[in-house]
Structures are given as C-alpha cells and as structure tokens.
C-alpha cells in the first residue's frame, strides 16, 4: 500500500538527502497520520473547509520531508 512512498524515501536516502531510516516505517507513519486525519474529517460533524483540509495535508507532507532531511 505504501510502496510508492517507500520507494521515494529509499531513493532520497540513497541520494544522501534523507537520514538513514527504515523507509517502510517512515511510509507507514505518514500513512497513519493521513488516515487519522481522514477518519477525523469523516467522523466529526464540524468538518473544516477544503482549504483548511488541504493546508493540513501540506503541513503533514512538510513534516515528513523536512523531518527526514539531513
């Protein structure tokens, strides 16, 4: 399920851009954050607007990428 993200992380590790980390675990961790966000959006009555939702996803991506940089 996370193979594309895992491959991307592996490639960036090999290029020396990301820290040495298990790419599968990093991909699953990102997937868990995304899943939690989606579950929250589906189950909570007060769903934020699309811009807020997309902004949250962008922040999660920045956390993943910047947290892995050397």
Structural class: mainly alpha
From the alpha-carbon coordinates, what is the Rg to the nearest angstrom? 14 Å
Q: Any idea what the shape is? A: elongated
* Helix content estimate: over 70%
Alpha-carbon distance between the two ends: 26 Å
The string of secondary-structure elements, in order, is HHH
Low-confidence stretches: none
How many strand units? 0
Q: Largest sheet at a glance?
A: none
Relative strand content: under 5%
Instruction: Describe the oligomeric state of these chains in a short phrase.
Output: single chain
**SS field, number of helical segments:** 3
Q: Return the average pLDDT rounded to an integer.
A: 87
Describe the structure in your own words.
With 70 residues, the chain is mostly helical. The chain has 3 helices and no strands. Helix 1 crosses helix 2 (23-43) and helix 2 runs antiparallel to helix 3 (50-68). It starts with a helix and ends with a helix. The mean pLDDT is 87.
